[in-house]
Design brief:
Layout: H1 3-11, E1 22-23, E2 34-40, E3 43-46, E4 49-51, E5 54-61, E6 66-74, E7 77-86, E8 92-99
Length: about 110
């Protein structure tokens, strides 16, 4: 298992309170540098948190129902997963999303 996939799996199992949530640049208890981005229609949009079938942004954002890529980089190692967005039509910090892992280990967004 690649180091990034192993880290993501272990990070998502930290505690019952935090399981399923990955935070940008705040992997507490780890020295990893973590970034999460959404690539959508040629734009790269920073994501604050991902997990539990949602993406959480730092500021409210208006997104269309669309398919993009969730890019998670940990210590310079990047992995990408297709993600479908299911916004409610209004600007929001929390956007429903479905991650498509294609049988690969990955975060449960």
């Amino acid at each position: 298992m690649p180091r990034l996939a192993a880290y993501v799996e272990s990070r998502f199992a930290v505690s019952p309170v935090e399981s399923g949530i990955l935070r940008r640049n705040s992997a507490r208890g780890h020295s990893a540098d973590v970034s999460i981005d959404l690539l959508l229609d040629g734009r790269t949009i920073p994501v604050g948190q991902a997990g539990g079938n949602v993406l959480i942004f730092d500021q409210p954002i208006l997104l269309p129902p669309a398919t993009g890529e969730l890019i998670i980089t940990i210590d310079g190692q990047e992995q990408r997963w297709p993600v479908s967005l299911h916004p409610d039509g209004a600007p929001s910090r929390v956007v429903a999303a479905t991650l498509h892992t294609k049988g690969r280990p990955g975060p449960s967004v």
